[in-house]
Amino acid sequence: MAPAIAQNVETSTVTPTKVTSIKTLAESSAALSSVPSAYAFTINPNDEADPNDPEFAVPIIDMSLLTCGSPDQRSKIIQDLVKICQEWGFFIVINHGVPESLMKAMIDSCHGFFSLPESEKQEFKSGNDVLEMFKYGTSYNLALDKVLLWRDFFKVRTHPEFYSLNKPASFSEISLEFSKRTREVALEIIKAISESLGLEPNYIYDAMNMDRGLQMLAGNYYPLCPQPEHAIGIPHHTDHGLVTLLIQNEMKGLQVEHNGKWLTVDGPANGFFVNLADQMQILTNGKYKSVMHRAIVNNKAARISIAIPHGPSVDTTIAPSPELCDREGQAPKYLAMNYKEYIQLQQSGKNYMKSTFDHIRV
């Protein structure tokens, strides 16, 4: 769905003719007391969930029970995943084995990158192909955006080949170790999800050619916003891969949609937020949910989030699993599509702010 454009919102008419960085705009204009009109976006507070309502208690998975627990403990976690993946498509993973010091170092490295002079960050500017080695930019796609987003970002491809930003100096070393460790977590989660479907542990890994699977490292910077209720970091969307892991600094801003409400997610500093993505919904023929989520902004401090999407190999054709369809007695609900073509469709102008599922439903 297209984003709701602000109506009757008191916004600044000062809009840069050439946007290069929302961080630069937010920090360079002492008179920026309202959101420039190009960024105006309405968030309805009535759509937000009460975080104290038990209905919106985000599920937590203790990964140590998957990797080191007893057979009964592992079986219980896998059974829990069935309900979580069907009803939420989102959970928090704790005791995953990635050192909290490494997670903090990765956030600090991202902060270091976004703190570089704009001229140095622009060295990594490229086109809009998500499969590029690395890219840096602002908003989403300046050639398509109808509403500019209150965020700067970089994206780096880290698997099957590892690439890295070369600034700041420590970034490459830290991102290499972080990418390796998060890939281990993601593959363990995918294995457990495969078992929760009644399939062999390596079914999804093999079917999706995960040995060559696409893994990205995406850093997002959301500067302080004078009117956070009238701007958006990233509007509602689903991810194109299988699963995405995410961490953030101490500022909350990730919201997931659950039972028709938007829940601002909170969790332990050493936890990973995990959401299922589109290829998981397609593979399971709609049994498991690719969760809708978004990023809001605040007027207190800058927020940094780091998303680590994991997907099939780019040359894999994804379709509903024949084994699952036969067992459930269902016809496939989605057309088969090459993963690279799916990504390109999701990123295209004709699919701007819309669900890619609309193009592949049978």
TrEMBL record:
<dbReference type="InterPro" id="IPR026992">
    <property type="entry name" value="DIOX_N"/>
</dbReference>
<dbReference type="GO" id="GO:0016491">
    <property type="term" value="F:oxidoreductase activity"/>
</dbReference>
<dbReference type="Pfam" id="PF14226">
    <property type="entry name" value="DIOX_N"/>
</dbReference>
<dbReference type="InterPro" id="IPR005123">
    <property type="entry name" value="Oxoglu/Fe-dep_dioxygenase_dom"/>
</dbReference>
<protein>
    <submittedName>
        <fullName>Putative oxidoreductase</fullName>
        <ecNumber>1.14.11.-</ecNumber>
    </submittedName>
</protein>
<keyword id="KW-0479">Metal-binding</keyword>
<comment type="similarity">
    <text>Belongs to the iron/ascorbate-dependent oxidoreductase family.</text>
</comment>
<dbReference type="InterPro" id="IPR027443">
    <property type="entry name" value="IPNS-like_sf"/>
</dbReference>
<keyword id="KW-0847">Vitamin C</keyword>
<dbReference type="Pfam" id="PF03171">
    <property type="entry name" value="2OG-FeII_Oxy"/>
</dbReference>
<dbReference type="InterPro" id="IPR044861">
    <property type="entry name" value="IPNS-like_FE2OG_OXY"/>
</dbReference>
<dbReference type="InterPro" id="IPR050295">
    <property type="entry name" value="Plant_2OG-oxidoreductases"/>
</dbReference>
<dbReference type="GO" id="GO:0046872">
    <property type="term" value="F:metal ion binding"/>
</dbReference>
<feature type="domain" description="Fe2OG dioxygenase">
    <location>
        <begin position="212"/>
        <end position="312"/>
    </location>
</feature>
<dbReference type="GO" id="GO:0031418">
    <property type="term" value="F:L-ascorbic acid binding"/>
</dbReference>
<keyword id="KW-0408">Iron</keyword>
<keyword id="KW-0560">Oxidoreductase</keyword>
